[in-house]
Amino acid sequence: MIAIPLVWLVALLAVPLVLVALLSIHQIADAIPPIAPLISHSGGHLSVQASVRAYRMLESDALYRSAFFSALINAAFTTIGCVLIGFPLALAIAQAPRKRRNWYLFLAVLPFWTSFLLRAYAWIGLIRDSGPINSVLLSLGLIHRPIAMLFTPGAVWLVMVYSYLPFFVLPMYAVLESLPGELLAAAADLGARPFYAFRTVTVPLALPGLISGAVLVFIPAVGEYVIPELVGNSSTIMIGGILWDEFFQNRDWPLASAIAIATFLLLMIPAYVVRRWIGPLGVVKQ
Amino acid sequence: MTGTDPPILELTDVSKSFGRTPVLQDVSLAVPRGSIVALLGASGSGKTTLLQIIAGLHDPDGGCVKIGGRDMGSVPAFERPVNMMFQSYALFPHLSVLGNIEYGLRARGLDRAERRRLVAWALELTRLVDLGGRRPDQLSGGQRQRVALARCLVMKPAILLLDEPMAALDRSLRAQVQRELIAIQRAIGTTFILVTHDQEEAMAMSDYIAVMDKGRIVQFDKPRTLYERPRSRFVASFLGSINLFDGACQASGARQCRFTTHEGLEILLERNEPINWELVGAVGFRPEKILISRKQTSLENPIPGVIEQITYTGSLTHTTVRIATDRRLHATSMNFGDGAVDGPAQGDAVFVGLPSGAGVILTE
Questions:
Q1: Facing B155 at nearest CB: one of A180, A191, A284
Q2: ipTM of the complex
Q3: DSSP assignment, residue B130?
Q4: Which has the higher per-residue pLDDT, B219 or B341?
Q5: Residues of chain A with pLDDT under 50
Q6: Which one of A133, A217, B249, B254 is separated from A149 by 20 to 30 angstroms, measured CA to CA?
Q7: What's chain A's Rg over C-alpha atoms?
Q8: B90–A193: do the CB atoms touch at under 8 Å?
Q9: Which residues of chain B does A189 touch, with a Cβ-Cβ cutoff of 8 Å?
Q10: Residues within 8 A of A (CB atoms), B 289-328 only
Q11: Is A190 in the B-facing interface, judged by CB distances under 8 Å?
Q12: What is the distance between the terminal CA atoms of chain A, rounded to a whole angstrom?
């Protein structure tokens, strides 16, 4: 019974992870692929050519730390944006008449059905200097020069919040929808005004789900590569981009792998904490 | 209803529809202060909706709701002197028993000392004294019900509403819980209004019952009056069982008449109070009032028949007798005397006696 999912899990998650971990301790070589085999058989005896050079570089060069930190900050702001926009959105959908909810959910998720790059390019088209936003503001006389929105950290934040929003809204909606409606009726019956009931009943019960949804956004956002690359600038270099550069430009596979492993291990901490204290998804059980 | 005290709850022509479906139509009711009143009806009769309207959780489409003489028209649920015990109890899962009970007091802004005093009183009243620190998921069904009750009582409402209070309890607990609820009500004097589909529960607990059918109150009376003097065929059949005969009265005096059923039976009816016999359209006899005997001499209105089925349930015997025109009458009797001695058996020819003074007289 447990065999098939376990095989799936092992094959598709554990094995690649182990391969990347192994890759990170390879020595580099001038070859294709640019790594020396870990175990070689030369002249009749086995030798192991492993190296922790990659990890030493991570530790010694400040670039990696600052890129990781930059990614953390950006992911944090993205998460906050998703929560601030996504929570009211999920709340509105959960409180809408039952018949309309699926329709609203569909609308919220619809952008997902289009290509991610197309959506990113759509934003580029909107916020660039010659785009419609600047044109309207200029023609209305509210500004005299175009506002530089594109290729800024703000643009990265904007497009990331836009892209990651469904990851927060859907689980948040699931949690809010699972709250028994009678609880709010009971609160009102006991004398709680609507905002007091929201504060003392809805929020505490939705909080675990909110935190789980936030983590669901935060963790992948740390490793984001494409969006900073497309709409950011040199100040928005983050760990995902560094990894790409090391792998494709410097052809330093072990270093790229080491970045991946280090990031993975560091992100395990918040993931574990959430899981331990809140449990999967935070859906209220009755 | 006593004339001196004004009713605690007055409903006048309350109507409510959900979409195009009418759920309540012209419901009027006056509930005496300090009484236990049951809204009794089948599913779909509108009783729960009526309860929710009293609580303020729904607004009526038409009509007027007055509590303590005050029109509740624009008063939202959180300002009404009414509290409701939900069928599912609706306990707050993230709060302890104490937190649940004091929720309303906190919402009202009472200080800690006052809250503590009231909560202690409520815990004592509902026998929850040692369970204050537990969470709802650590309680049994009966305990959860008591928390829901305490949570309401601590607010000292003018009216306590109970939505199917026994529905979620084991059968074996129900009688005891019924007694406890009545005892609490007598101790604190709050008006209770409960919704139920169980007529035995309604009769056991209530001072008055409002029988509801399809969004209307068909009769509002004391349980005994409803059972012995139902004013409609519906109420007569809804509470307990009854053997009904359609027909008309001939040759009547002021307090008695000769009732001829459509099947041709003649039944002599008597009453202590004068009745307008011309309006009588049907008469009914409850199973426990009907007598069965092999000899017709001791019986009033004897009707010959054959015993079709006998069911012995220990303290009672239920007998089905087939009379002329294939009509079946159901009789119930208590097993007096030595029950080990056999009475009439299946297939026996017997006489069914209909007591002339104990018939239910209906004018429809």
A1: A191
A2: 0.84
A3: G
A4: B219
A5: 283-286
A6: A217
A7: 24
A8: no
A9: 55-57, 77-78, 82-84
A10: none
A11: yes
A12: 28
User: Measured at the alpha carbon of residue B139, what is the angle toward residues B138 and B140, in degrees to the nearest 5?
Assistant: 135
The answer, for B19 touching chain A at a CB cutoff of 8 Å, is no
Q: Is A182 within 8 Å of B90 when comparing Cβ atoms?
A: yes
What secondary structure does DSSP assign to A146-192, as a single string?
Answer: ----TTSHHHHHHHHHHHHHHHHHHHHHHHHHHS-HHHHHHHHHTT-
B108 and A CB contact within 8 Å: yes
DSSP per-residue codes, A72-133: HHHHHHHHHHHHHHHHHHHHHHHHS-HHHHHHHHHHHHGGGGS-HHHHHHHHHHHHSTTSHH
Q: Token pair of A244, please?
A: 């790409």
pTM over 0.95: no
Residue whose pair of structure tokens reads 């009816």 in the numeric block: B269
Q: Could you say which of A182, A190, A284 has the minimum Cβ distance to residue B104?
A: A190
Residue B8 pLDDT > 70, yes or no? yes
User: What is d(CA B269, CA B257) in angstroms, rounded to the nearest whole number?
Assistant: 5
B353 CB contacts (<8 Å, ≥6 apart)?
A: B290, B291, B292, B293, B296, B298, B299, B300, B301, B302, B303
A286 vs B: CB within 8 A:
yes
Residue from the list A183, A185, A191 with its beta carbon closest to the beta carbon of B57? A185
Half-sphere exposure of A79 (CA within 13 A, CB side): 20
Q: Distance between CA atoms of B293 and B228, rounded to whole angstroms?
A: 24
- CA pair distance B195, B216, nearest whole angstrom: 14
